[in-house]
Amino acid sequence: MQIRKKFCLTTNYCLLAAIVLLLSGCATTDSSDSKLSSAGSLKPQSILKFSDVPVPAGLKPLPLESYSFESSGVRVGVLKYIGKANPDQVVNFYKDQMPMYNWSLVNIVEYSQRLLNFEREGESCIISMQPKGSSIILTISLGPKSQAAAKRTKQIIR
Question: Taking the complete model, does pTM exceed 0.85, yes or no?
Answer without folding.
Answer: no
